[in-house]
Amino acid sequence: MIRVDGVELAYGDVQVLNGINMQIEPGELVAIVGPNGAGKTTLLRTINGILKPDRGEVLLDTKRIRDTGSKEVSRKLATVPQDTHIGFSFCAEDVVEMGRTPHRSRLDWSDDGDPVTEALERTETTHLRERNVDDLSGGERQRILLARALAQEPKALLLDEPTASLDINHQVRVLSLVEELVKEGRAALAAIHDLDLAARYCDRLFLLHNGSIAARGTPESVLRDPMLAAAFETETAVTQNPVTGTPTVAAVTGRDDRSKHVHIAGGGEGAAVAVRSLWQDGYDVTVGPAPNGDVVTDLARELDIKTVTAPAFSKPDETTRRAAIDTAREADAVVITEGPGSKLVAGAVETTKTVETNLGSAGTEVARVDGGNTTAVRTEAALIKRVSTVVDV
């Protein structure tokens, strides 16, 4: 449907697109992801014919787009721009009506309102049809522009940051609608800045970095590709969203070199909280002993963290115990959780480098009776502060 062959484009001496190759088929929702300035909008503007590439070709239904008339292109390909400014004080329905222009001749302005009505209904904007677009919010204008694109009845959609002006509710609704359109046989290519949304709704991702495609493939493979961290200039952690079952990515701040090693002893929710918070703060984290199938071992696997595991519901054997103790002794600090296995390590390492915790499932304070006194860390913030004090001694 859409094919990009070796496209290159420069603005003066600045190379903006470099050897871009991609193909989007009907029934596919594909995302272009990448940092600001990577060339996502420029690529979309080249695909829809607004910009002419210096080298390479863009083909629409096997025909070069540069050899195709604008009306024919518009009947097949609709674009939803990032900029929601309309430029004229029309009512919303008139803006959507503009989507019918490619299907009319200069003398034929008969009313064919069914596609317009359907577009308003599918974008849930019927109640806005008589409103002046100047009076609409950015998110409402975004949905009106999507309705205009649907009114074109295209075979393919280009969407430039379609969720940028939307609240979380309408982000999901808009991408769910695009997903429906794709299932009906259309092709869709979208520049999406939210990696989690791209992973949730798209079949494939293209990672654009410095004008080149740095990675391509399924959301899972692209989000785990080392080039993602290079493109966004930050370390990333990829886990599975427990609700959607799709990959979710988080940028990691704090120490860049992971030169300080922290060992988490034990399993359970509290251990998982400790692993997540310290890993995100930039520490080299290890875990164990922890039971197979435990929440902390699952998290450690997602983060590719070294873990000493033991069979669930049984006491760790001597080999496992020794491996956990040896790993803990190599660490700059040891976090003792309330989970199973923690006591095996607690008595075998220097007390000066241990940090006792009492963390809940979300890192919030949990009451504990301990003779009326406890020095256990009970919040994520306190844990990070205490560990920092220990490792920097």
What does it look like?
This protein has 393 residues and is α/β, with parallel strands linked by helices. It has 14 helices and 17 strands. α6 (168-183) links the parallel β7 and β8 (187-191). The longest helix has 16 residues, at 168-183. It is an enzyme of class 7 (translocase).
Which labels suit this protein?
393 residues, ABC_transporter-like_ATP-bd, five-stranded parallel sheet, alpha/beta, Cobalamin import ATP-binding protein BtuD
Please write out the topology.
Elements (H helix, E strand, L loop, with lengths): L1 E10 L2 E11 L4 E5 L6 H8 L7 E6 L2 E2 L5 H7 E4 L11 H6 L16 H9 L15 H14 L4 E5 L7 H16 L3 E5 L3 H7 L2 E6 L2 E6 L1 H5 L2 H7 L2 E6 L6 E6 L8 E5 L3 H12 L3 E8 L3 H8 L4 E4 L7 H12 L3 E4 L5 H5 L7 E3 L23 H12 L2
Helix pairs in contact: 4-5, 10-11
GO molecular function, one term: ABC-type vitamin B12 transporter activity
Function: Required for corrinoid utilization. Probably part of the ABC transporter complex BtuCDF involved in cobalamin (vitamin B12) import. Probably responsible for energy coupling to the transport system.
Enzyme class: translocase
